[in-house]
Amino acid sequence: MDRTGLLWMLRQMLLARTFEEAAAREYATGSISGFLHLYPGEEAVAVGVLHAAEPGDHVVSTYREHVHALVRGLPAREIMAELMGKKAGVSAGMGGSMHLFSREHRFLGGVAIVGETFPLAIGAAYAVAYRRLPEAVICFFGDGAVNQGTFHESLNMAALWKLPVLFVCENNRYQIGTEIHRHSAVVEVYRRACAYGIPAVRENGMDVLAVHGAARRALERVRAGDGPQLLELETYRYRGHSMADSGAYRPAGEVEAYRARDPIQFLESGLSGSLEGHWQAACPGPDCIASFGEYCRTQGHLEGDCFTRLEQETVQEVQEALEFARQAPAPDLQDAWAAFRCNRRGERFFGREPT
Amino acid sequence: MTGLLYWQALHRALDLEMDSDDSVLVLGEDVGLFGGTYRVTEGLMAKYGEWRVRDTPISENSFTGLGVGAAMLGLRPVVEIMTVNFALLALDALINMAAKIPFMSGGQFPMALTVRMPGGVARQLGAQHSQRLEHTLMNVPGLRMVVPSTPQDAFWQLRQAIRSDDPLIVLEHELLYFRKGPVDETLPPPPLHQAKTVREGQTLTCIAYSRMVEVALEAAGILAGMGIGMEVIDLRSLSPVDWETCQGSVQKTHRCLVVEEDCVFAGAGAELAATLQERCFYFLDAPVRRVGGINLPTPFSPDLEAASIPRPDTVVQAARNLVSGSGNLR
Ligand SMILES: Cc1ncc(C[n+]2csc(CCOP(=O)(O)OP(=O)(O)O)c2C)c(N)n1
Ligand SMILES: [Mg+2]
User: What is the dotted CATH code of the domain comprising B196-324?
Assistant: First the structure.
């Protein structure tokens, strides 16, 4: 991959983490409330996979989808506005954190019932296949979702009709507080695809280059008409399941072991010393941004203060998003009815106007 | 004008819509090669091919959800759920997805999804195969639901449902598929959700839908012999409800009886009675009364089964009580 691609991925990961940490702070102040599921730790998955996507592809995601939307190109300010329930939000304030949608970006949600991404994705893929379009559908889901009936139902249909779907499991080993060995009889998710004859691979989800490579190869096969593919990406979330969860059920030291080299945490902590020093001192944590940053540096792409400049740029972008979202007006009931009636096209239900 | 069976009218509607718009496709269990449980999709696979008439595995939630995803990309899927009893497994796709995505996305996505399903009490199918689901689906903002009672309405309403960009449930009735009636393909259809006065009367108004319309009409015939003029309204749609037509009739007759096959507790009739009571209170000579299915899983034994839902004689009795102001209706 060339320098532009590498730095794009690094910047996206930084933006993602900065965005999510900012959302957490807004939650603490009360300007965001309700459910909020954050992504720090898992950035390499969204960035690696979506860097391999084409603009014509479709993306379906879960309630932990801010970063998928962000990397897909939905504007940070409009995502933040949605998190705050504002009219300028991507879903006009009708969806919220778990329901980001953008027809323009072919982002089909944002669905919050575990297991729904599967039927939605095969439906989109059915439309693509029926129209013989050169597009793929990317379907994100967690390790907890694979025990839902829709996983099996939809994988079966996807394979049966060779639908162009890339199933992407973000295996962070937890379904809220239940660790994977306590929720799944078979913990290697990719092996389940075998039951439906779907080619599947497992990859290190903390390594954005590995993720990108695997996604690119899988999408090539999807686009070539080989039918669905499944990617299992082993990853880890640093925060609790949602803002309501402290994550206390995880063994002591587990989070720290993953998070040790988190550069955003380091920079935000205001501790003295250089980032390089921090990375080396805390070695060898698997943090996806730290390890990829290291890689870029050793390849000669992060000369001087390039990393901190990138980081400052993203801080700036998130700051602007926050300001935009905070001052944006809330929708009113008229807006809600307009969204509700979006598909009526002046259809008359009765012989006259209802009273 | 030709005489068609109810299933033939649905078939004709599908065929015409598929022929005129290649974004219309049909999917469900045994809709293709087999031709549909009630023959509604007979021959369509041969005519339109497998991608437009798709036999699915027994995966109600996922193939209904597939319809939702395909509709988001601009197709007009017509999903057939073999019977409403199995639609219980697809409620997530219907209620959490189809009904909510256009709204939750701030109005960005079309949802031209039509879901056809037969329901109701047929003949000795047992408690798991004799249910009615309108009470549940009526309560979902974002879903519209029509309940054709004649071949003509089946023809019109299915075509209109397919053309609508909103998700629509077409609730058919298992005992109506082999009813014959005139179908005029050239007549302009009435609005999709408009109710229809199918018999005029001055003494009381009876509001019914789906198969209960024929029960109400039979009762009205008997009542006429007793000098009681029962007006019968075929609701045609349960969501939205054409309140004006109902209200106009009740304001004329001053008495209202609602007949439904669904269990009467918290059913469609409860909504109809409550709203009409609110709207017509000062016009009413008696409380709005309901006749409906008893609150029991449908019994298998034939006489019990028949007694568990309204029959013409129960409707007659209820109407007489309502008119004379006496008697307990249930
Ligand atoms: C059908 C359903 N059941 C339960 C929930 C509550 N719930 C929300 S997220 C979640 C855990 C999902 O875990 P996983 O799929 O691994 O995704 P992760 O949160 O780890 O990204 C549960 C149980 C839900 N949203 N939907
Ligand atoms: Mg998980």
Answer: 3.40.50.920
Name the residue with tokens 């007694």.
Answer: B307
CA of B203 to the centre of ligand 2 (A): 64
Min Cα–Cα distance to chain B from A35, Å: 15
Domain containing residue A204: 3-240+262-337
Nearest to B97 among A116, A154, A352 (CB): A116
Query: Does A288 reside within a domain?
Result: yes
In angstroms and rounded to an integer, the radius of gyration of the C-alpha atoms of chain B is 20
pLDDT band at B148 (very low <50, low <70, confident <90, very high): very high
Q: Which atom of ligand 1 is nearest to the CA of A116?
A: 1
Residue ranges, comma separated, of all CATH 3.40.50.920 domains in chain B are 196-324
In a domain, A94, yes or no: yes
Count Cβ neighbours within 10 Å for each residue of B209-243 and write b for 16 or more, e otherwise. bbbbbbbbbbbbebbeeeebbbbbbbbbbbbebbb
Q: Closest-lying ligand to the alpha carbon of A171?
A: 2
User: Where do the CATH 3.40.50.970 domains begin and end in chain B?
Assistant: 2-183
- Count of domains forming chain A: 1
Which residue type, as a one-letter code, is found at position B163? R
Partnered with residue B5 across adjacent β-strands are B180
**Model confidence pLDDT, tens digit, residues B87-110:** 999 999 999 999 999 999 999 999
Chain A residues 32-71 with CB within 8 Å of chain B: 58, 60
Other Cβ atoms less than 10 A from the Cβ of B202: the count is: 12
CATH number at residue A41: 3.40.50.970
Name the CATH superfamily housing domain B2-183.
Answer: Thiamin diphosphate (ThDP)-binding fold, Pyr/PP domains (3.40.50.970)
CA closest to A348 among chain B residues: B191
Kindly give the distance from the C-alpha atom of residue A23 to the centroid of ligand 1, in angstroms, as a whole number.
Answer: 20
Chain A residues with beta carbon closer than 8 angstroms to that of B108: 91, 101-103, 342
ipTM attached to this prediction: 0.95
Q: Model-level pTM greater than 0.90?
A: yes
Test A113 with B193 for CB contact under 8 angstroms. no
Largest CA distance in chain B: 60
CA distance A137 to A108: 10
Answer yes or no: is the C-beta of A173 below 6 A from any ligand 1 atom: no
Question: Mean pLDDT score of chain B, rounded to an integer?
Answer: 97
Residue of A343, A344, A345, A352 to mutate for B, most B C-beta atoms under 10 A: A343
Residue A259 · residue A41 · CB < 8 Å: yes
